[in-house]
Specification:
The complex is a heterodimer of chains A (322) and B (275). Chain A is α/β, with parallel strands linked by helices and 322 residues long. Chain A has nine helices and 18 strands. In chain A, the strands form four sheets. Chain A has a seven-stranded parallel sheet with strand order 7-11-6-1-4-5-12, sandwiched between helices. A five-stranded parallel sheet of chain A has the order 15-14-16-17-18. In chain A, a hairpin with a 4-residue loop joins strand 9 and strand 10. In chain A, helix 3 crosses helix 4 and helix 5 runs parallel beside helix 9. Chain A starts with a strand and ends with a helix. Chain B is an alpha/beta fold and 275 residues long. Chain B is built from six helices and 18 strands. The longest helix of chain B has 15 residues. The chains are: A alpha/beta (322), B alpha/beta (275).
């Protein structure tokens, strides 16, 4: 038996929704490991978010130290590795976000732990199902090290529900902090009032056929009407039409919303890898032979220039009629 | 400056995945250099050349390392043909290795080679694991800059400022030399790599990694390739990660083409119940 140490990201006083997916996974895994979930919050503001974490985990450990500044894998990984040992963890988890993907393999190296990335399912205590080949196949892997590291995919796990009672919160020291010469310089954030691409219920994505960034405005209007996040294919982000972090695909975001609009997107396998878990997929493209229509539940063969304004007006009519 | 670039060969991702005896059937598969690793070679070349007149900066060296079966030599030669200077091929079957074994071999090679920088792809497009760079940096106790979209070499050549693609934007991180950099797609954009030698006005094609020239292909045949085995680097063929089986996901149920937008909205509301 062993505990499950779940590294949780937070934003202000609350856990990020990505952390709730991690905690949901960690709960199932803790049952398989006959242990408890220990939620770990590290960094500036960790204390303030600990009460929220205690709603979801029976034990919360907080590391907040003046020496510990902005997230760096170099300074955070040794803390996670040390606490994994101190808390008798046999499994260490972090959501497969850009931070989790940066951090956890480094933790695994420090623990000599085998690691399974981007997992979609827990098959048994040491066996996991994960997509390979851009999601074109699923591999079941067994990891045989005494401690195992895994990054569950946010889109595969429903957010954890609160527990009946609050968990206990304890503080732990950061220990020696050595950034190894690395320094955080700045974050050029993409400010947006829209939901995060990773947990939006609706996503509106545009592709190469949108031609210019200016043309995305009409998709943004559709997105705002639906409370959706904006996405894009690699062709559109590479061409500089929209920010790189809008990219949906094998190497971008993996999304699984209830409703996904693919507008002027051809449907290369790398893009499909990022969105084919969506519940309902709508493709709008003027070329009927594009591969996107093979995964779409509903396809409309039309130019976006005409179709999207009409779609906006039809949805407005529908909303007005309710 | 010596740059070490670990590379992996992968089955061509445009081939359709087939299953045989519960695993991916690679009989007759065609192989390529992992795309991200090709980008890592391109990055190393851009760091060590004057892009405007296509000349190498004196004293620069690119060493390619690959751990894979005998016939991976072909993909290693491709890296040499692109412009890498020499290669180390550690021969091992794919089922004899996992990320930790690869890291162990690289650690031992790095101890001997003492490169100024390690540049590699952020993930292999077959396993999609995205682990080796971070693990290697952890084991070597070096700084890491993962998912690099831009790299700027400091004037004193003692550090790099790396633009990293993270959720919600681009994070700039400064790392000293040596360190481990893993590259993302946009590292091959036309102005992503700045080395202080290539003029700011120079625009690379931005169409991905360069193709080997005929001259490069000829030259690659004569470039040195050291061949070794796992034991030479203190590693054992005992992976801690075992693939039990592989399955293909069920195909999505066939969709429907609808005639027009009003019909679409009606179906999304009444049939799919998502509006």
């Amino acid at each position: 038996m062993g505990n499950v140490l779940a590294y949780c990201e937070f934003n202000g006083p609350a856990l990020r929704s990505s952390a709730l997916a991690n905690l949901a996974f960690a709960r199932t895994a803790a049952t398989a490991h006959a242990g408890d979930v220990v939620a770990l919050l590290v960094g500036p503001g960790a204390q303030a978010a600990s009460a929220d974490a205690a709603r979801y985990a029976p034990k919360v450990v907080v590391v907040e130290d003046a020496a510990l500044g902005h997230y760096l894998a170099e300074t955070y990984a040794p803390i996670v590795a040390r606490l994994a040992k101190e808390h008798g963890a046999t499994l260490v988890t972090a959501t497969a976000t850009s931070m989790g993907k940066d951090l956890l393999p480094r933790v695994a190296a420090l623990l000599d732990a085998g690691m399974a990335s981007d997992i979609a399912k827990l098959a048994s205590k040491d066996t996991f199902v994960r997509p390979i080949l851009a999601g074109n196949a699923y591999s079941t892997v067994q990891v045989t090290t005494p401690i195992i590291c895994v990054t569950p995919r946010q889109s595969e796990f429903e957010p954890a529900a609160p527990l009946p009672g609050a968990g206990t919160v304890t503080a732990a020291p950061a220990g020696a902090v050595d950034p190894l010469g690395a320094a955080f310089v700045r974050l050029d954030a993409q400010k947006s009032d829209r939901p995060d691409l990773g947990d939006a219920k609706v996503v509106v994505s545009g592709g190469r056929g949108m031609k210019t960034g200016e043309n995305f405005k009409v998709l943004e209007e559709l997105a705002d009407l639906l409370g959706a996040a904006m996405g894009a294919s690699r062709a559109a982000t590479d061409a500089g039409m929209v920010p790189a972090d809008w990219q949906v695909g094998q190497t971008g975001k993996i999304v699984a919303p209830n409703l996904y609009f693919a507008v002027a997107i051809s449907g290369a396998i790398q893009h499909l890898a990022g969105m084919k878990g969506s519940k309902t997929i709508v493709a709008i493209n003027k070329n009927k032979d594009e591969p996107i229509f093979q995964v779409a539940d509903y396809g409309v063969i039309a130019e976006w220039e005409k179709a999207i304004p009409e779609l906006i007006s039809e949805i407005k009519k529908l909303k007005a009629s309710r | 400056m010596k740059i070490l670039v670990p590379v992996k060969r992968v089955p061509d991702p445009t081939q359709k995945a087939k299953i045989k005896d519960g695993h991916i059937d690679l009989t007759g598969a065609s192989w390529i250099v992992n795309t991200f690793d090709e980008y890592a070679i391109e990055t190393a070349l851009r760091l060590l050349e004057n892009g405007a007149d296509n000349t190498r900066i004196p004293g620069g060296e690119i060493v390619v390392v690959s751990i894979g079966p005998d016939d991976a030599a072909k993909e290693i030669r491709t890296c040499l043909a692109m412009g890498a200077d020499r290669a180390i091929h550690v021969v091992a079957k794919d089922d004899e290795i996992d990320a930790l074994i690869v890291v162990k071999v690289l650690q031992s090679i790095i101890a001997a080679e003492k490169p100024d920088l390690i540049v590699m792809g952020k993930q292999a497009v077959d396993g999609d694991a995205n682990q080796v760079g971070q693990m290697l940096a952890g084991k070597l106790n070096l700084a890491q800059a993962t998912f690099a979209a831009t790299i700027e070499l400091a004037a004193d050549k003692q550090s790099l400022t790396v633009g990293r693609e993270v959720d919600g934007g681009v994070e700039y991180k400064k790392v000293p030399m040596p360190s481990v950099v893993t590259v993302d797609l946009r590292i091959v954009a036309s102005k992503s790599v700045k080395n202080g030698v290539t003029p700011e006005s120079h625009v690379y094609s931005g169409e991905g990694a360069r193709l080997p020239s005929l001259k490069g292909i000829m030259a690659a045949k004569k470039k040195p390739m050291t061949i070794g085995k796992l034991a030479d680097y203190g590693a054992e063929p005992q992976p801690v990660i075992k693939e039990l089986s592989v399955t293909l996901p069920p195909p999505r149920a066939a969709g429907q083409i609808v005639a027009d937008i009003p019909t679409l909205v009606k179906k999304l509301a009444d049939e799919a119940k998502v509006l």
